Amino acid sequence: MLYRTAGQFKTSYRADQALFPIRQDAFLLGLILVCAWVVFPLTASEFTFQTILTPILIYSLAALGLNILTGFAGQLSLGTGAFMGVGAYACYKMITLMPWMNPIIAILLSGVFSAGVGVLFGIPSLRIKGFYLAIATLAAQFFLVWLFEKWAWLYNYNASGAIQVPNLDMFGFYVSGPQASSMTQYYVVLTIVSLLTYLAINLTRGNLGRTWKATRDMDIAAELIGINLMKSKLTAFAVSSYIVGVAGALFVFMWRGAAEPNLFDIPLSFRVLFIAIIGGLGSIMGNYLGAILIVGLPVVLNTVPGWLGIHVESALLEHLNIMIVGSLIIFFLIIEPHGLNQLWRLIREKLIIWPFPH
Amino acid sequence: MKTFRTLALATAVSLVGVGAMAEGIFAPNLTYRTGPFAATGIPLMDGQKDYMTMLNERDGGIGGVPIMFEECETGYSTEKGVECYERTKANAVVTQPWSTGITLQVLPKTNTDMIPILAPGYGFSPMANGKVFQWAFNPPASYWDAASMIVQDIAAGDLGSLNGKKIALLHLDHPFGKEPIPVLEAMAAEYGFELVLIPVGLKEMQNQSAQWLQIRKERPDNVVMWGWGAMNAGAITEAVKTKYPMDQFIGVWWSGHDADLKQVGEAGKGYKSISWSMPQPDAPLLADLKTHVYDKGMSEAEDTNAVFYQRGLVISMILAEAIAKAQEIHGTGEINAAQLRDGLENLDISEARLEELGMSGMVPPFSTSCDNHTGHSGAWMLEWDGEKFVQASDLLMADAAFIAPLEAEKSAEYAEANAPWPVNESCN
Fold this sequence. Notes:
The complex is a heterodimer of chains A (358) and B (428). Chain A is mainly alpha-helical. Chain A contains 14 helices and 4 strands. Chain A has a single domain (46-353), classed as ABC transporter involved in vitamin B12 uptake, BtuC (Orthogonal Bundle), CATH 1.10.3470. Chain A is globular. In chain A, 48% of the residues are buried. Chain B has 428 residues and is of the alpha/beta class. Chain B is globular. Classes of the chains: A mainly alpha (358), B alpha/beta (428). The interface between A and B is large, with 57 and 56 residues. Chain A: Keywords: Cell membrane, Membrane, Transmembrane, Transmembrane helix. Chain A: The chain crosses the membrane at residues 26-43, 49-69, 76-95, 101-123, 130-148, 184-203, 234-254, 266-284, 316-335. Chain A: It comes from Aliiruegeria haliotis.
């Protein structure tokens, strides 16, 4: 009923290939965008901005970057955290070396550095595949975090080895550092995330995306039909690392405000990988769903007892939280091994043919 | 599922502003009773909690206002720490971040949110400069004080004797472990000893064979340890295994956890740890705690004579004294965050006051002022006698003349890097 497609005729191939062949999809997306751009910022408190809205967006972007590499091009990577670190440190160095630089330009440029590093560590992917490639990216993870610790130039010889985000302003508004308001930072993050998501959707639908998918599904067959595997894999590494690097810069500059090297260690890589896997490999929307589950849900669960007026010891609450989120992950993966995105697709399909199933 | 997202966010939005609204002073504590550092966190958190429970039970709070001492669990994770800070800051009079990582993260925020940050014996040493760090307090002593006192103890009063010696700093490769390096480097240059830095990565905490191999190769005269959590136990067992002379091995105050030494028992004899708190099993305070807290079954503490538990008591005492001071200054019971700042800035923990509190000898007397947010109380050297920590020195005092210029330099650097950084102009 809600998703009835009757009357929506496609009269050209162009219409058939449109981003939203069904009008309701476009409507739903519009609704979400209105929520994200208008409703949430108007209603959210500082707490919601800082612990739910901004982190979900940033983690989604990081997962989106990883998903391009792992989900679309089929190259398993365990180095996401380190590539985020490259973006963050690149941004920090640019801002401190060239304080006149526009912070948003710096964030967008910092992805270029991580793309470069990503391509470098992607070279082994031309020879090795699957788990073996995962080990190569794991090497990148360890090496880069070690580099963040040992290369004092990266953190401007700070005694504690951490980087602190300075106050940066743009058109009279502080966008980063302690003086920046959460709402400004949220809008910066939202703008960049929306832009990159739009680009990613179109990239994966286009020629490059098809090349990646062919490489993922069967690389020998892809090579036989004339796809240049080197180009396909390395572009996947470059685009993926670019997005991940931008996510890393946002992570530190728009949210955390300070970072120490071990922040970018393997737990962060795993977290992003879990978001991508639970959201659904090879999907764009899945990253958002996964981030809501992994990043947003624990925060919401923590507020529930207080909301209901029940007093629970904080440590116990933390344990309960880990158990609940853990079992939810298992639950979702059992009912839909292909992730939350696939779950939504099935629901949508059922809705379209409802109330007359085949 | 898109609707689920909307729903989840909508619920979250509607939950906003939930917090303690009841009467009283809301003093949250960002604890870590879970995670890799829980073993050292639990006794400290128990001590803090029990002291506040006792005040509520015995005196009905402070100045007649009950203290709502609530815990927010971080598991020592910086991300959770920031979440807890955001969650509690609306009504809180203070934030106790409990990790150097979280401290570094919330330090800039507290300056704009105007909430005092209380980090007793940890955090960023230049926080002592109250003019620059208006909202940050790390009484009674900073890590730089600790480094200075440890070096004095090694020199046994004659700093000239350090010339040509070799001191190794075995430290966690983390902001916390790196804290003493600037002051130790400056002292090495001044007194002519050689400083060997031996970092222990977070992943290597439990297996330090490489580090101790390096120690055997370098043959330092002394090993100074800046360790926490699993790293302490790892280092101490490794030192025993490699037969490093224990009396040349000195830890910072977070490396003097009873349980870590109990593992090696007799073999750990001679290991020393600098400490600004000392367990006093016979203190009158403990009797009060027994009547008002333990006997009522309101405590979970296991060993109430352990160094860390009693340090937790001292930490809550510092906060309670600051609250009382703030009430006195502002003539109101229900103080707010800005008023508590004045209390923390005018602390005067004298011998006489400690006597009144029944806490004589648990912490050296100290006082704070607007430009001195640390107090620089000095500390004792505690020594492991095979069963427990015993006092092994008179009160040592940090070399203020040496540390003050460094504090001024580093705090100025911080303020510059974070410009515009409001400083306390009224303070000279």
